[in-house]
Design brief:
Helix content: 40-55%
Order of helices and strands: EEEHHEHEHEEEHHHHEHEH
Number of strands: 10
Radius of gyration: 20 Å
Strand content: 15-25%
Largest sheet: 5 strands, mixed
Structural class: alpha/beta
Distance between the termini: 30 Å
Number of helices: 10
């Protein structure tokens, strides 16, 4: 089965070909970071227009790289949500029109399910069941994953997600867009222990998260050093912030492993690319004798490969494909609605 995947939920346009037997054949990606940097964040209207410009050239490039034609495609998967409404609409409309033209069915995909399953693209993928730490954009969740569409929510953020806290704290430190990644890089040069920031809900006894208080603590720290916003201060503050957020993510993940009794942890989403998070989890995995899996760095960001994979796995799991032509997007779409037990 050959599935064409299309991702357009925010500021990346991704196209991919995934074969159920041969695996990922090809994928292309265009990031809009440079365009949005001028405005300090994503401008939805500009994002939508850029998706329109990029999707056809990327499709042609993906087909050429995979040495396939549209006649070889068995189904078209695309991101239905969550995401920016206009951006989603571009990918959805293009996918449905394309599928109608080539007389193939479509498979709408949940963006977060794509991230959740993305470690399965690795050369050494995990097997079901596993615990998943999903840290993507506005979402921070811990789940027990028994199979495709078999998800049990163990805990999630009550306010700001980890990725949001990274971006907002970066802005407080005066870092340009995209701030989260720059904060992580800056933290590598900071000195540990110079500043101490709170670890929200670290000892709450459950698997919930809260990061708005940590962001507020960064704001307080910045105000206290308003007359000394040196590069050294910024690096040390970034290090303190990252150490706090990593400790919370790791401790909660370890608690979830103990609670479920599972021996495999999957980390997916943009924050999953964080070096300190990976190093700390790898150390804990060796010490506590469990395995931890991550997507390749190129698949931590939004991409078409994870959408093609999720669409293929959904089809293989028996989720019915739908005839092309009729479609709807879901800018807000809880992941747990994709679980087999959802009502």
């Amino acid at each position: 089965m050959l599935v064409l995947g299309i991702e357009s939920s925010c500021d990346e346009t991704g196209i991919a070909l995934y074969d159920s037997e041969a695996g990922l054949l090809s994928h292309t990606l265009h990031s809009q970071v440079a365009m949005h940097a001028e405005y300090g964040g994503v401008v939805p209207e500009l994002a939508s227009r850029d998706h329109i410009r990029r999707v056809v050239p990327l499709l042609r490039e993906t087909l050429a790289q995979g040495n396939r034609s549209l006649d070889d495609v068995d189904a078209v998967a695309y991101t239905r949500g969550p995401g920016l409404a206009g951006a989603l609409l571009v990918g959805c409309a293009f996918a449905e029109a394309l599928a109608l033209a080539i007389d193939k069915p479509t498979m709408p995909v949940h963006h977060l399910e794509g991230h959740l399953l993305s470690p399965l693209l690795s050369a050494t993928p995990p097997s079901f069941p596993f615990v998943a730490l999903l840290v993507s954009g506005g979402h921070t969740q811990l789940m027990r994953v028994t199979g495709v569409g078999e998800y049990e929510l163990l805990g999630e953020t009550l306010d700001d997600a980890a990725g949001e806290a990274f971006d907002k704290s970066a802005k407080l430190l005066g870092l340009p867009y995209p701030g989260g990644a720059l904060l992580s890089k800056l933290a590598e040069t900071g000195t540990p222990g110079v500043y101490e920031l709170p670890r929200p809900m670290l000892h709450s006894g459950d698997l919930s998260f809260s990061f708005s208080g940590l962001k507020t603590a960064v704001l307080t720290l910045v105000r206290e050093h308003a007359d000394d916003m040196s590069d050294t201060f910024k690096a040390d503050a970034a290090r303190a912030f990252q150490e706090a957020i990593v400790e919370v993510l790791v401790k909660k993940s370890l608690k979830a492993m103990k609670q479920t009794g599972l021996k495999q942890l999957v980390v997916a989403g943009g924050v999953g690319a964080n070096k300190q998070l990976r190093t700390t989890l790898n150390d804990e995995a060796r010490r506590k004798r469990f395995q931890v899996y991550y997507p390749e760095l190129e698949f931590c960001t939004d991409n078409g490969a994870m959408i093609a994979l999720a669409g293929c796995l959904r089809l293989q799991a028996g989720t019915p494909a739908k005839p092309a032509g009729a479609f709807a997007i879901q800018p807000r779409w809880p992941l747990m609605e994709m679980s087999a037990g959802a009502k």
